Amino acid sequence: MRDKGFGRADWRRFLESIGENPDRPGLQETPARVAKAWGAWSAGYAQDPAEVLKVFEDGAEQYNELIVVKNIPVYSHCEHHLAPFFGKATVGYLPAGKIVGLSKLTRLVDCFARRLQVQERMTTQIAEALMEHLAPKAVGVVVSCRHLCMESRGIRAIGEETITSAMLGELQPNLALRTEFLALARST
Questions:
Q1: Which residues of the chain have a pLDDT value below 70?
Q2: Nearest Cα residue to 142 out of 161, 156, 157, 158
Q3: Is 125 considered catalytic here?
Q4: Other Cβ atoms within 10 Å of 110 Cβ, number
Q5: Active-site residue among 16, 79, 132, 161?
Q6: Please, is 51 exposed, middle or buried when counting C-beta atoms within 10 Å of its C-beta (0-12, 13-18, 19+)?
Q7: Distance between CA 108 and CA 74 in Å, rounded?
Q8: 117 included as an active-site residue
Q9: Cβ-contact 88, 144 below 8 angstroms
Q10: Which of 7, 45, 141, 165 could tie 2 with a disulfide, CB 3.0–4.6 Å?
Q11: How confident is the model over 124-160, as pLDDT tens digits?
Q12: How far apart are CA 12 and CA 129, in angstroms?
């Protein structure tokens, strides 16, 4: 079955193009499995960040401190090589009368991670979507990932991590708030 992207026939041709025999027993089901896997890995294109973020006005009226969720798993694919990159994200915000369900921050990260990406853009997209749909006083996002395009080819820099951040709203000019967010992001 093919709806979007590469279907079984395309992956079969891919196997042939790298010199494999798609009819050998170990590869007969591979085209279908790969097509299904890419359907999951690219599911973020079908997600709307506005629908992912359920906003609550009850519970945050008097809350004026940072809300931070750490160690959010990130699994994505580099748009340059289609190689996986993976790691963790920390997402925090300073509410302005509204909050989101904590699991929605994980869903927001996943929404953007399940697209072909560069880590820098993904980090900014997460921060901007939270700022747009929640309208908090501040948003901070830190993403730390290992990139298999660097580890398995080219420079072969095994174990290196790339760290990106986005600070919006009051986190930009307010050094004390920014320091607090980054300390929370680093804490264990």
A1: 1-5, 188
A2: 161
A3: no
A4: 20
A5: 79
A6: exposed
A7: 11
A8: no
A9: yes
A10: 7
A11: 999 999 999 999 999 999 999 999 999 998 889 899 9
A12: 38
